[in-house]
Write a structure and sequence with these properties.
Structural class: mainly alpha
Number of helices: 2
Length: 47
């Protein structure tokens, strides 16, 4: 499932990477990393 989703979504990611300015891409990526880290901390604490 993950491989199939990656293959299907890769062209969308490439188009977004070329269309958006570098500063915006860095902010979006940093936001995703912070959200993922917060989720992981929340899951570790809630066990």
């Amino acid at each position: 499932m993950i491989a199939a989703a990656s293959v299907l979504m890769a062209p969308l990611g490439v188009k977004a990477a070329h269309a958006l300015p570098v500063k915006s891409l860095k902010r979006v990526f940093a936001s995703v990393l912070y959200l993922l880290a917060a989720y992981m901390v929340w899951k570790a604490i809630s066990i």
